[in-house]
Design goal:
The chain has about 80 residues and is mostly helical. The chain contains two helices and no strands. Helix 1 packs antiparallel against helix 2.
Length: about 80
């Protein structure tokens, strides 16, 4: 047996899991809403109004989903 062989050691277990939010269509709808607002500024205020309403709904939903995700995190992983 040679002394130049690498020594195999066990890796330490991971300290915490990486938290990733679930898949969501909210970013897509938010982008569509912003696009409607911008296009509506040149074409019709009705299109801008529809986009603005959709944008507010998306933002409220996105924030509530984020708050729920943060509330479900284990206590040790929350920032100070």
């Amino acid at each position: 047996m040679s002394d130049n062989q690498p020594v195999q050691t066990q890796a330490a277990p991971a300290g915490e899991e990486i938290h990733l939010p679930g898949p969501s269509a909210i970013p897509l709808f938010t982008a569509i809403a912003i696009t409607l607002v911008v296009i509506g500024l040149g074409l019709s205020l009705v299109i801008s109004a529809i986009g603005a309403v959709l944008l507010v709904i998306c933002i409220v939903r996105w924030i509530s989903d984020t708050r729920r995700d943060i509330a479900e995190l284990p206590e040790a992983s929350l920032p100070d």
